[in-house]
Amino acid sequence: MRWSVVWFGVAAARIAHAGVDLAWHAPAACPDQVALRTAIVQRLDTAPDQIDLAVTVDVVATAEGFVAHLALGDEKRELTSTSCAELADAIAVVVARAGADAHVTAPEVIPAAPAVVAPVAAQVAAQVGDAPVGRSVAAIPRPRTSPWNAAVRVAALAGTGVSPDLDIAGELAMWASYRDFGVELAGSRWAATTAEVGTLSGVEVGLSAVALRATWSPTEHVRGWIVGELGSQRGMGVGFTDASAGSGRWSAVGAGAGFGWPIAPHLTAVVAGELEVAIERTAFALAGSDGSASTVYEAPRFAPKARLGLELSWR
């Protein structure tokens, strides 16, 4: 316990002397700024009286893991890892090396406590070697990442409320996102099902619609949204003399949530549920010989649906 207290005091003193102006922005799952500063100090070979270095780090969660955008003064860098903790260790190595070369007074030698270098940090240290601070760590393989993403989705839908019975539909959608927020445009066509009037007669009802969704992704696998939908309900009489067809407007609003499983690079299987509340719906009626009309089918107010599909994304 005594050695732990002594080392904590030494680390605190070195942080006070290390003039690293650090701005750290990262998801909640990542180490905090105090932990990163401590990791930087642990990796300094010397503790200069003053370090003139401004560091800004922005960490973004992606489908492959985490991406850190570093600004070391005027130098820009980018590091990636599947683990944010390992990524923080790698950042500490790079910043500590830059800080050691940025001191403006003669350094004071302070023995450094032994530190266990995580795999990613060790890889960065090996690649940097004795290269000057201004040189990019380009030898480390990493994907090109961006806060933007886009995808195309094909899916099968199943639900009730838009037609008389449990129905199925096909859907084609396109979406684009920036960081956690996005917008989606989707078109669907529901197969016709029959609202029966007699044994061999009734009205076949179907729906074609376009939906606009505003999405939010709190994690890389979960997505929620609100939706507005506009379409046309079509009806066709079956088994009647002089049967006729007609159509009317369908509009609804609602919300939903979904989950995605990456099954290959850029390819994700998605499952989702959605509940819409109808604003406008069409009633299909049977005209009597005396000019009266009796309603055969009108969609209920609530329309739940489920989705199963595949998304092909840009990243």
Structural class: alpha+beta
Main sheet, how many strands, which sense, barrel? 8 strands, antiparallel, barrel
> How widely separated are the two ends?
48 Å
Widest beta sheet: strand line-up: 7-8-9-10-11-12-13-16
The share of residues in helices is: 10-25%
Helix and strand succession? HEHEEEEHEHEEEEEEEEEE
Poorly predicted segments: 1-18, 128-140
Strand residue content: over 45%
> How many helices does DSSP assign?
4
How many DSSP-defined strands?
Answer: 16
Report what the structure shows.
Mean pLDDT is 79; it is low at 1-18 and 128-140. Helix 1 packs across helix 2 (33-42), helix 2 (33-42) packs across helix 3 (84-100) and helix 3 runs parallel beside helix 4 (119-128). This protein has four helices and 16 strands. With 315 residues, the chain is an alpha+beta fold.
